[in-house]
Design brief:
- With about 190 residues, the protein is α+β, with helices and mostly antiparallel strands.
- The chain has one domain: 7,8-Dihydro-6-hydroxymethylpterin-pyrophosphokinase HPPK (Alpha-Beta Plaits, 2-Layer Sandwich), CATH 3.30.70.
- It has 7 helices and 6 strands; from the N terminus they run βαβββαβαααααβ.
- Strands 1, 2, 3, 4, 5 and 6 form a 6-stranded antiparallel sheet that branches.
- The termini are far apart.
- The model has no long low-confidence stretch (mean pLDDT about 90).
- Catalyzes the transfer of pyrophosphate from adenosine triphosphate (ATP) to 6-hydroxymethyl-7,8-dihydropterin, an enzymatic step in folate biosynthesis pathway.
- Pathway: Cofactor biosynthesis; tetrahydrofolate biosynthesis; 2-amino-4-hydroxy-6-hydroxymethyl-7,8-dihydropteridine diphosphate from 7,8-dihydroneopterin triphosphate: step 4/4.
- Keywords: ATP-binding, Folate biosynthesis, Kinase, Nucleotide-binding, Transferase.
Length: about 190
């Protein structure tokens, strides 16, 4: 059982491409980080904000993305619940996979935790893109199964955790970022 005073390092990715009640996506991301602090989560550091091409390309306005290093007294599941509550408070609905949204907060990693098992995480990591677009896991997968493929996650994550090591790939964020295809890196620009 976890000591209530023990805090775990975690990394989250934030993004949005639609306005919320507080304003433009960049205002929403900043407000969401403040909401995290109000929920008992400490925000240790925040990346720069980046403008990222919408995926799939042309499906909507560009995204604003960021990552944050946080410390949480909660385990992964309760922390994920808090993230979902904050998303909902800023108008996020989950009706269409990868649809435009005012706020998306993904739990990217919690230290070196692998959840639920290395085999299940690897299965999701290897899922072809056409299946990714149709299928979502029904359980928490840590680390995020596609973080190593996504410039819009790795580039901001490098700002706050360049030396974090992926527990299954054995690579740092900087190494994974350097291995991204140019097409993934070029679509992520500082705001």
């Amino acid at each position: 059982m976890r000591d209530k005073n023990q805090r775990q390092n975690a990394y989250i990715a934030l993004g949005g491409n639609l306005a919320s009640d507080v304003g433009a996506p960049e205002d929403t991301l900043r407000a969401a980080l403040n909401a995290l602090s109000g929920a008992g989560v400490s925000v240790v550091s925040v990346s720069a904000l980046y403008r990222t091409d919408c995926f799939p390309k042309g499906a909507g306005p560009d995204f604003v993305n960021a990552c944050a290093h946080i410390e949480s007294p909660f385990g992964a599941e309760p922390l994920l619940q808090i993230l979902h509550e904050i998303e909902a408070a800023f108008g996020r609905t989950r009706e269409v996979r990868w649809a435009g949204r005012p706020l998306d907060i993904d739990l990217i990693a919690m230290g070196a935790e692998v959840c639920p098992t290395p085999e299940i995480v690897r299965g999701w990591m290897g899922l072809p893109i056409d299946q990714q677009m149709k299928t979502a896991p029904d359980q928490l997968i840590l680390p995020h199964p596609r973080l190593h493929e996504r410039g819009f996650v790795l580039i901001p994550l490098r700002d706050v955790a360049p030396d974090w090591i992926h527990p299954l790939l054995g690579k740092t964020v900087t190494q994974m970022c350097d291995e991204l295809p140019e097409s993934e890196r070029s679509g992520v620009k500082p705001l």
